[in-house]
TrEMBL record:
This is Rv3235 family protein. InterPro entries: DUF6459. It comes from the Bacteria.
Protein backbone atom coordinates (compact mmCIF):
# COMPACT_ATOMS: atom_id res chain seq x y z
CA UNK A 1 0.00 0.00 0.00
CA UNK A 2 1.41 3.37 -0.98
CA UNK A 3 1.41 6.34 1.35
CA UNK A 4 -1.29 8.02 -0.76
CA UNK A 5 -3.54 4.94 -0.55
CA UNK A 6 -2.96 4.68 3.19
CA UNK A 7 -4.21 8.21 3.87
CA UNK A 8 -7.04 8.13 1.31
CA UNK A 9 -10.60 7.46 2.52
CA UNK A 10 -10.88 3.77 3.38
CA UNK A 11 -14.00 1.78 2.45
CA UNK A 12 -15.71 0.24 5.47
CA UNK A 13 -17.83 -2.93 5.42
CA UNK A 14 -21.44 -2.66 6.53
CA UNK A 15 -20.94 -4.79 9.65
CA UNK A 16 -18.53 -2.14 11.02
CA UNK A 17 -20.98 0.72 10.42
CA UNK A 18 -23.92 1.91 12.54
CA UNK A 19 -27.57 1.48 11.58
CA UNK A 20 -28.19 3.92 8.68
CA UNK A 21 -31.87 4.68 9.47
CA UNK A 22 -31.25 7.33 12.20
CA UNK A 23 -28.73 9.06 9.93
CA UNK A 24 -31.22 9.00 7.05
CA UNK A 25 -33.83 10.68 9.26
CA UNK A 26 -31.35 13.35 10.35
CA UNK A 27 -30.11 13.96 6.80
CA UNK A 28 -33.67 14.40 5.55
CA UNK A 29 -34.50 16.88 8.28
CA UNK A 30 -31.26 18.78 7.70
CA UNK A 31 -31.58 18.86 3.91
CA UNK A 32 -35.19 20.05 4.04
CA UNK A 33 -34.26 22.75 6.55
CA UNK A 34 -31.40 23.87 4.28
CA UNK A 35 -33.79 24.14 1.34
CA UNK A 36 -36.27 26.07 3.50
CA UNK A 37 -33.52 28.53 4.45
CA UNK A 38 -33.47 27.92 8.20
CA UNK A 39 -30.21 25.94 8.34
CA UNK A 40 -26.81 26.63 6.82
CA UNK A 41 -25.72 24.04 4.28
CA UNK A 42 -22.23 24.00 5.86
CA UNK A 43 -23.69 22.25 8.91
CA UNK A 44 -24.22 19.14 6.78
CA UNK A 45 -20.83 19.15 5.04
CA UNK A 46 -19.27 16.34 7.07
CA UNK A 47 -22.06 13.93 6.11
CA UNK A 48 -21.88 14.50 2.34
CA UNK A 49 -19.34 13.73 -0.36
CA UNK A 50 -18.02 16.75 -2.21
CA UNK A 51 -20.27 16.31 -5.25
CA UNK A 52 -23.42 15.71 -3.20
CA UNK A 53 -22.62 18.73 -1.01
CA UNK A 54 -22.17 20.98 -4.03
CA UNK A 55 -25.45 19.77 -5.48
CA UNK A 56 -27.28 20.50 -2.21
CA UNK A 57 -25.63 23.93 -1.91
CA UNK A 58 -26.63 24.81 -5.48
CA UNK A 59 -30.21 23.76 -4.87
CA UNK A 60 -30.29 25.73 -1.58
CA UNK A 61 -29.08 28.87 -3.42
CA UNK A 62 -31.78 28.43 -6.06
CA UNK A 63 -34.41 28.02 -3.33
CA UNK A 64 -33.18 31.16 -1.58
CA UNK A 65 -33.35 33.15 -4.82
CA UNK A 66 -36.88 31.88 -5.52
CA UNK A 67 -38.02 32.86 -2.01
CA UNK A 68 -36.42 36.29 -2.41
CA UNK A 69 -38.11 36.87 -5.77
CA UNK A 70 -41.50 36.01 -4.28
CA UNK A 71 -40.82 37.98 -1.09
CA UNK A 72 -41.31 34.92 1.12
CA UNK A 73 -39.22 34.79 4.31
CA UNK A 74 -37.48 31.54 5.31
CA UNK A 75 -39.62 29.37 7.56
CA UNK A 76 -39.17 26.11 9.42
CA UNK A 77 -40.60 23.31 7.30
CA UNK A 78 -43.23 21.00 8.74
CA UNK A 79 -43.03 17.48 7.41
CA UNK A 80 -43.47 13.88 8.41
CA UNK A 81 -41.32 10.97 7.30
CA UNK A 82 -43.81 8.40 6.06
CA UNK A 83 -41.44 5.57 5.20
CA UNK A 84 -37.81 4.64 4.71
CA UNK A 85 -36.88 1.83 2.34
CA UNK A 86 -33.28 0.61 2.47
CA UNK A 87 -31.39 -1.83 0.27
CA UNK A 88 -27.75 -2.82 0.14
CA UNK A 89 -26.54 -3.30 -3.46
CA UNK A 90 -23.00 -4.10 -2.28
CA UNK A 91 -21.14 -4.31 1.00
CA UNK A 92 -20.60 -0.87 2.52
CA UNK A 93 -23.19 0.85 0.31
CA UNK A 94 -26.79 1.66 1.21
CA UNK A 95 -29.39 3.00 -1.21
CA UNK A 96 -32.55 4.35 0.38
CA UNK A 97 -35.78 6.05 -0.54
CA UNK A 98 -37.38 8.27 2.07
CA UNK A 99 -40.98 9.37 1.55
CA UNK A 100 -41.61 12.76 3.16
CA UNK A 101 -45.04 14.38 3.49
CA UNK A 102 -45.18 18.16 3.77
CA UNK A 103 -48.12 20.54 3.97
CA UNK A 104 -48.40 20.96 0.21
CA UNK A 105 -46.99 17.78 -1.27
CA UNK A 106 -45.43 14.41 -0.67
CA UNK A 107 -41.90 13.89 -1.95
CA UNK A 108 -39.56 10.98 -2.43
CA UNK A 109 -35.91 11.46 -1.57
CA UNK A 110 -33.33 9.05 -2.96
CA UNK A 111 -30.11 8.74 -0.96
CA UNK A 112 -26.96 6.71 -1.46
CA UNK A 113 -24.76 6.20 1.60
CA UNK A 114 -21.24 4.83 1.38
CA UNK A 115 -19.21 3.57 4.29
CA UNK A 116 -15.92 5.47 4.43
CA UNK A 117 -13.56 5.72 7.38
CA UNK A 118 -15.99 3.86 9.68
CA UNK A 119 -18.94 6.22 9.09
CA UNK A 120 -21.67 6.76 6.54
CA UNK A 121 -21.35 9.55 3.98
CA UNK A 122 -24.06 10.54 1.51
CA UNK A 123 -22.64 10.34 -1.99
CA UNK A 124 -25.93 11.21 -3.67
CA UNK A 125 -29.13 12.96 -2.61
CA UNK A 126 -32.02 13.56 -4.99
CA UNK A 127 -35.22 15.22 -3.83
CA UNK A 128 -37.90 14.29 -6.33
Amino acid sequence: MTLHEYFAPQPTPTVELPDPVPLLRSLMQGALEVLAGVREVDQLARWFSEDAFRSLATRANLSARARSARGVPPGRPTFEILSIRVCEPTDGVIEAVVVVAGPGRTRAVAVRLEGLDRRWRASSLAIL
